[in-house]
Amino acid sequence: MLETSMLKRRGKGFFWWLDKTGTVAAFAVIILVFSLMSPFFLTRSNIFSLLRQISPILIAGLGITFVNMAGESDLSLGGTLGLAVTLFAGFLRAGIAPLPTFFAVIGICMLFGITNGFLVAYLRLSSFIVTVATMFIAMGVEVSTYGGFSIWIRHESVLSFANGTFLQIPNLAAVAGVVFVITYIVLHQTKFGVHLQAIGENYDTANLMGIPIRRLKFISFVIANVFYSIAGILLVMRTSGAIVYSGQRLLLPALGVTFVAKTVFGARRPNVFGVLVGALILGSINNAFTLIGLQFYLVPIAQGLVLVAAAAVSTLNKRDIQQEILD
Amino acid sequence: MQKRKIDSEIKDTSRTRAVAKWVASIFLRKYIVIVIFVVMIVYFSIVAPAFTNMNNLISTMIQISMLSIVSFGMTIVIINGGVDLSVGAVAGLSTIFGVTLMVYHGVPVYLGIFMGLGLGGTMGLFNGLMIARFGVAPFVATLGTMFIAHGLQFSIRHGESIGWGFPQGYINKGSRTATIAGIPIPIFIFIVIAIVAYLFTEWTTFGRYLRAIGRNQHTAEYSGVRIRVLTMFAYVISGVLAAASGLMLGASQRYIQPNLGDSFLLDALVVALLGKAAFGGTPLILGTIFGAVFVKSMEIGMAMLGAPIMIMNIAKGSLLLAALLLSIYQKKGLQGGY
């Protein structure tokens, strides 16, 4: 089925071009329309604030990409990201220095990644169900640690880092940029990344090639959870306060970003550059709607329409019904 | 000659013993979740005698009813080989739509409920069209619908809640005092829907076809099953049942906030997957009912023992993991390991 449809796509018709460039063209159109509607959209300060806004979701999306590349799905960020947010703010309030707090939070979130990785890679459980379960556990730990109260950050050096700039680029955006570049190199330019993609593309072939599937899957889950905790720390720095269940609010948008990523340049598979485009599209809709002064509930509607349209365009030539494997 | 006879006798007895052992182990493996459930219920009723109070049982049943109805839709979609992430937002949207018509536009109660269910079905139809006609992955399509419905549910009343002026006929749908044949109406609705859904998935060609699509859509298509129409229908059912569950929840709490159904998605997933894991990896309506009963009675029992409300999520997650590990153990026993 797949092969014939791929052969048919050799002819470079309109749909072929739509498939290849549709998402990026849509992004360009969105930017154009927004800059016409609001004179402030393309100003320097707004672009920087947009970059600050998307930095947590970008890093969370990159984390999911690690797991997606290995052919699994990961929903645990709904819990671990929120746990990182709460723990970071709580530890700072308890008087622990910022740097030890940073590493402690990442270490605690890594435990959830290790659990996921062990259960999925070594016991071969369904990644969907396992990560939903660890998400619930992380949510429970999050609420029971500080009782679900909002915690504000009043630590001077953390706040000055969060609001500071590096070479005139906001620090948070710079951190996201560095993480993005590292992820790109690791996933697309190293043996590790190529092997990870091989597992996701074809499990049996990867197995026959002698790729250490279990170990790589395990590592991808651990790295993903490190990324979620970094995203959570960036989020709490940006809002300078922890609100309970922040991970829940970021879970579905982050998944949306990874789905848009699969449609960029007709890739049809998880890729790092696509995550950036997806995060920029969803983030600029949010940003511009606020600038123009539209109702807040129009933002998810527009984001949903973009998601559905991107997905529909990328499957124009496909005839199969896609199915999810939940066991 | 004599020796051979003895040998065969020995062999026979050892074989029967092995068979008996095998049957016992299969029985234990298959029903161990139910054994655990019974032990849990007995423990709760001894430690917290109020747990088996009639009053408490009825309110537990009402909560189970609402949770099960949304999970039935999820189960039918999982049977069909997909997943529906939009149930929560669709439930909130249809509820606030239907009730707004009733309260502010003077629409009769049954017409309002019908309109709410219809809107749920329409969102489900949108999901189904995307998935069956355009070949979008269910995860993506239903996530998109979830975003759209999440925005629309605020647009109807511009983010305001509805807290008064409900017609009595609507409140009865979630109340424990209004009864049909001595059964509170929400429980009655649940029983009717459960029976219909059970018969529908297990005893009709439609249900068989649905399961066939979930197992292998190509085989189903070559066997002459109209896979696209049936897939679309599964998502429509899921939307309608999500709307029904939301309407019942709104009626029982007599207060409708726009994001009423936010917790539905994860709860329905936990219940459906728990039922699936507990019954040997097959999604079943009976398994889903069992999952809902298990989760709700555990929640309520733990609350009665004075466990802090924050522990509930940890317990839910651990329960799901335990059921999953158990299903692996069961499979190992039945198939000789892998």
The overall pLDDT average of chain B reads 83
Helix content of chain B: over 70%
Proportion in β-strands of chain B: under 5%
- Compute the number of helices of chain A: 14
How are the strands of the largest sheet of chain B arranged? 1-2
Radius of gyration of chain A: 20 Å
* Averaged pLDDT of chain A: 83
The N- and C-terminal alpha carbons of chain A lie at a distance of 24 Å
Q: Which runs of chain A of at least 5 residues are low in confidence (pLDDT < 50)?
A: none
Helical residue percent of chain A? over 70%
The spatial strand order of the largest sheet of chain A comes to 1-4
Largest sheet of chain B: 2 strands, antiparallel
User: What is the overall number of helices of chain B?
Assistant: 13
Structural class of chain A: mainly alpha
Structural class of chain B: mainly alpha
Please indicate the percent range of residues of chain A in DSSP E strands (runs of 2 or more): under 5%
Give the strand tally of chain A.
4
Shape of chain B: globular
Secondary-structure element order of chain B, N to C: HHHHHHEEHHHHHHH
